[in-house]
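REQUEST FORM: STRUCTURE PREDICTION
Request ID: SP-0412
Submitted by: Lab K.M.
Chain count: 1
Length (residues): 81
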Amino acid sequence: MLGRLFLDHPRTLGMSWAGHGVGAVAIGLRMIGGGAACLVHAVVPALFTETAGRTVMGLYDYMTRRKAAAPDPHAWPDYEI
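STATUS: Completed
RESULT:
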C-alpha cells in the first residue's frame, strides 16, 4: 500500500520519490504564482498582462526538458508531472 502511494508513480518515470517531489513542488509553485497574477490582472488589467502566458509556456518547456532527460522519455505521457 505505501509503495503504491509513494513509490510506484515516480518509479514508472525513472525517478526517486524525492526527485519527483522536487519537480512537482517547482511546478506547483509556478502554477500558484501564475494563478495569483491572473487574479490580480482580473481586477487591475494593466498589471501582469503577459504573466499567465509566460508561466504556461515556461511550464511546458520545463516539463518537456524533464521528459527528454528521463531514462525512458517514451514512457512519459505529455501531461505527466
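NOTES: The mean pLDDT is 89.
Reviewed by: T.R.
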